[in-house]
Amino acid sequence: MSPVFVPFAGYLTVSIEPLPPVVIGDTVTLKCNFQTDGSLREIVWFQVIEGGGVKQKIFTYDAMYNTTYSHLEDIHRHDDLVYQSTVRLPEVQMDDDGLYECHVGIYDKSSRDKVILASGSIILNVIVPPKSISVVAANCPAPFSRYEAQNFTLVCIVTGAKPAPMVYFKRDGELIDVVPTPQSSSSMGHRSQAGLRSSKSSRDLDDTKVHKSLSPLEEEGKPARLGQDGPNGPNQDREQRSKSDPKPTTEVIPETVVSREFPRWVQSSDPLYYFQHRQQPAGDGTVEVRALLTWSLNPQLDNEALFSCEVHHPALSMPMQAEVTLAAPRGPKLSMSPSRAKVGDTVRIAVQGFQLGPSASEVFPEPMFTWTKVGGRLLDGREEHDGRELILDRVPAELNGSMFRCTAQNPLGSTDTHTRLIVFENPRLKKHFIAIDAAVSRRSLTLSSTLLLLSFTCELT
């Protein structure tokens, strides 16, 4: 409110009714109230843009030419005039966000040549709900490690929001107690969010699902240190393990081998969850938020655990949510094209899907795929190939009966699937070789006849 007082000349007070934050797309009415005992001269509305350097006129009322404009209401009180000027903004957008000013002028009572001016201002705050929310795993695909603990990070990405939303993580439907982490150097602006108050989720340890594999020291109650402890020292232990491991063979190989023996470093207690909250301004006035949840992964307890990212924002009537189920890969389903391969064909062996668990709809995080040939090298001479698909160019007859292994692994576990390649004779190539042999035979016969004729001629001479 900006009152202006002039002695013996009348008075003028101007104010704009406050507004709560407005959701993008809504219709907004700005209301400018002013009171005076003088005669109205004009009303002008401005939108202040470019950081206050420019004022764009959006509405003008000139009382000299139109004293009955529909946006004005006259109420007489003790010879005072109370006016209200309204400006309606339909379907506000981000460009409408900012400062608005209402300027009012009245005639001076002492002289019609003088005008008394006053103004009021208001900030229109346009808020935008998030456009998208997704949960990804950081640093994936990644291998499964049986011999050392791995830190695992879920990243919740929220885009298109203004202001920045609040982000929470849940496990199996319950809020997670988190430990805020200090700010670290990054190209994105950081700010740590306070820890969330909730009860920790508990997942009981089911020993019936774990194949025990205790060393003699563990059986005596002493924890074995990987690569160090053992009855005969580390080197002899490795030699014994290598001798006991089955050697690759092409005979009697199971269709699928699933790793169910969990690492010995796994702890059954609830882990500590560390939380980071980063936000990056976007060019359209919104922000992108990345919330990171990091903990020491427990493949035994975290497999098939449901994690969700919940987003709260003043423009939302209810929270947004994205969820993922952690799942180790189980039983890759392989397809071979062509199904009946012939000598000289290009054969493609690809992963089509997995045998999923009861609560998993897909394998998450994304697995790594490694292809090997049992008992030898791949066709191109390499020991292994990475990717969802293995391509064998111009397969020779020698590959008939070869066994290929596909290993799929993510931080929760690994699994192997084998497939055998059957190569049939190619009739076209066989005809081609027969034709070559016939041509060679004809050439040999012609050469023999020529030599015989030359020999006979020499004998006559």
Segments where pLDDT lies below 50 for 5+ residues?
1-8, 67-79, 184-244, 246-254, 432-436
Mean pLDDT: 77
Q: Based on the structure, what is the oligomeric state of the protein chains?
A: single chain
CA-CA gap between termini: 136 Å
- Which percent bin holds the helix content? 10-25%
Q: Helical region count?
A: 4
* Main β-sheet description: 6 strands, mixed
Structural class designation: mainly beta
Explain this structure.
This protein is mainly β and 461 residues long. 12% of the residues lie in helices and 40% in strands. The chain is built from 4 helices and 31 strands. The strands form 8 sheets. Strands 12, 13, 16, 17, 19 and 20 form a 6-stranded mixed sheet that branches. A 5-stranded antiparallel sheet has the order 1-2-4-8-7, with no helix packed on it. It has a 5-stranded antiparallel sheet with strand order 18-30-29-26-27, with no helix packed on it. The longest helix is centred in the C-terminal third of the chain and has 34 residues, at 427-460. The chain is elongated, with a radius of gyration of 40 Å. 23% of the residues are buried.
Draw up the topology in text.
Blueprint: E1 4-5, E2 11-16, E3 22-23, E4 28-36, E5 39-49, E6 54-62, E7 75-77, E8 80-89, E9 98-107, E10 115-124, E11 126-127, E12 132-137, E13 151-161, E14 166-171, E15 174-175, E16 178-180, E17 189-190, H1 216-219, H2 233-244, E18 256-258, E19 273-281, E20 287-296, H3 299-302, E21 306-312, E22 320-325, E23 333-337, E24 341-342, E25 347-353, E26 368-373, E27 385-386, E28 389-392, E29 403-410, E30 413-420, E31 423-424, H4 427-460
Parallel strand pairs: 3-11, 16-19, 24-31
Antiparallel strand pairs: 1-2, 2-4, 4-8, 5-6, 5-9, 7-8, 9-10, 12-13, 13-20, 14-15, 14-21, 17-19, 18-30, 19-20, 21-22, 23-25, 25-28, 26-27, 26-29, 29-30
